[in-house]
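Consider a concrete sample entry:
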Amino acid sequence: MKRFKTIILVAFILNLFGFQSYGQCQPDTLCVDDGEPGQICPDSLPDGLEMVDYYQIVTIFPPPTIEYEGNTITLSHLRLDTINNVPPGLTYESNAEGNLFAVGSYYCVLISGIPDSVGVFPLSIEVQPYILGFPVPTTIVDDTSLSITINSQFGIEPVVKQKFFVDKVSPNPFPTYSTIYYSSPKNGLAEIYIIDKLGREIYSEQSEVMSGENSFNIDGSDLQTGMYFYFIRFDNNIFSGKLVKVE
């Protein structure tokens, strides 16, 4: 079971109306708070296979309190902001309307789809706490190593992130702009190109890569809605994934 920690961020005042549950997943009510505020179950997620349907339910039991600026604060709700680094091809959806979780109740997030990239994908779950319908200027983040491993159907070992790797694409799906985050163990030159479903190249760019974290910023304002594929070439290797443009 996963514990939560708090990281201070800037938040904006939002109105809270309606907390009805919906969606197709059912939470695991045997997920027990073991003394640390808030839980995420299960402890580990099953592996998946590239281009094979994946279906996994994650249960979230919101913490009743958090420590904020030296004080213990009693919460009313949590809002799921994002799950970072979900494997390309998978999506997530909660059973709470507006992704708003009432404290004292169980909720679930369904992670499903057809993964199209092989690798190990550590997940990070971020939620916004609320007091009496107003957000607290902090974000709660899962601080343990919940991850999804996607294996190849052809016996190729997953890409463990020790060398050059694509970390995440966020947001994805995206309405206008998206960023592809990647890391490299050395300096070099990377090239990205994006094609549509008909194989037509609609974007390309070269970039100097520094050792460590890097990114490509994608301006999709002129793209039509739909699915696209990106390819990043670095040091004689090609890394690929999927982009989805929405309204």
Summary: The radius of gyration is 19 Å. The chain has two domains: 4-151, 165-245.
